[in-house]
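Objective 1b. Sequence-to-structure analysis of Sodium/glucose cotransporter 2.
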Amino acid sequence: MAEPSSEKVTINNPADIAVIAGYFLMVIGVGVWSMLRTNRGTVGGYFLAGRSMAWWSVGASLFASNIGSGHFVGLAGTGAAAGIAVGGFEWNALFIVLLLGWLFVPVYLTAGVITMPQYLKKRFGGARISLYLSVISLLLYIFTKISVDMFSGAVFIQQALGWNIYVSVIALLLITALYTVTGGLAALMYTDTFQTFVIIAGAFVLTGFSFGEIGGYSALLTKYYSAIPSNFSSLDTQRYNISSQCYTPRQDAFSLLRDPTVGDLPWPGVVFGMTIGGIWYWCSDQVIVQRCLAARSLTHVKAGCIVCGYLKLLPMFLMVFPGMISRILYPNEVGCVVPEICKEVCGTEVGCSNIAYPKLVVTVMPSGLRGLMLAVMLAALMSSLASIFNSSSTLFTMDIWTRIRPQATERELIVVGRVWVLCIVAISICWIPIVQAAQSGQLFDYIQSVSSYLSPPIASVFLLAVFVKRVNETGAFWGLICGLAMGLCRMLPEFWFGTGSCIFPSQCPFLVCGIHYLHFAIILFTCTSVLVLLVSFCTEPIEDKHVSERFKGWVRLQKMTGEVKIFCFFQLHRLVFSLRHSKEEREDLDWEQEERARRARKEAKERMRAKANVDTGGQ
């Protein structure tokens, strides 16, 4: 077994620097090329890439948008600490992404929406549900997705370059924002496609070198269990006592389905809890769904989802296994358990498993290929951040700004979307010190636990909205509110008391924090669904067929003259799965708001045209 080198290896040779520079030039070139060939002058062109993306681009973009640096650092880190079970999150997506292409996207396309809050607005009417979803989505983007990507990217940069974390991350954010602001979604999807190949190629190379270091897969099966740090005696025995469970690899490390009571990822949670989180992430999250809405047709959507599903097989082999190998090669660093030693190795006392993947890159890879892997990590970080920037600007522009200024023109909406990207960058930079102070020994567990506390109500409402016609706005709203309250009642005490570790147990009461977060997701989803259905069946349903308010006066006049010709409109057609093929004329529940917004935009255009005529005449 190799001993960890005490000398820090950094990427500073000409070969590595040349590879990194070449990578950035290619990314910029792809972005400029997409700018020149795609219409970005309209809302559809900027936010949905003109609905012109082919299946291969959709599939690659879905995968690249999902796989960020948080996956490289988080999956490898949890794999190093606990084995292969964390790969279940990736394999679960194999099936969920097919639900996206075959069940959810057909409804979204026929509904004619750009954002997910827009769909809920058309499905239920009113403004409170879509506004709730827009605001909570933006908060989740800023404080979980962006912060996690920045933290994981900072871990890699710190290990690989030895640069100042703040300078490195700020530079990455600015470059990412640059091609997001200039290129729109098309630039993201074309660069995503390019970066997907870079990510997969680089990860394959590292996996091959890693298995070569230990002697193959059979060696992994035997050597992992002996990957124990040489120093596991605390310097302060009066403060804490280190149990053997804290530094010995789990005996079920190579089991995907684990004990439902004592397993770190219990099998009921893996089978059902992961599925609930997957429905939220893959079927109702703006970042993912927006890629499908940009496809040329539903056929391209389905083919893209199949491509993404096959690609989701790879993280187990390209991230989880290398993380476990890193623990074998560097048990004293990746598997450190003594708080004083961990603090010296990675800057945090709770463990250093998050450095598993970066440690492999800077020590196993030869010169030149180290630069390639840094490019891979930068690609993952920038792809994920760019996707969030673009999707959050879409949410803010289409669902919040249009409420503030319903008369906004298309040009104004595009400008506001770009300005919002810059605002996201500024907020993210300000959030860096908090991210650095909140370092966790299990990054991927943090991501999934927060999702399990906040996402099940959203998954429940979207699932019921698409498949149950009887669900109405009142039921959906109170389900979201009560589900959020229930999730916060679990999440806030856990943050207050801390999640704890093997050495530092949490002081959170067992009644509140004792249930595994995946089991809690099942309970929360069930309670929300029952409440949504109960309230919906106890209140007035959405009328399937009705006479529009716009025609009621005309209808009364026709009845007085003896004519019986009445125009009826359908409110749920092409908004639920069972009516997705309907050809009947639909009047959306939010037609009055849309009409006012269209009228305001038309008046704004006329004022601009009149002003332009006056200016021309004055000259």
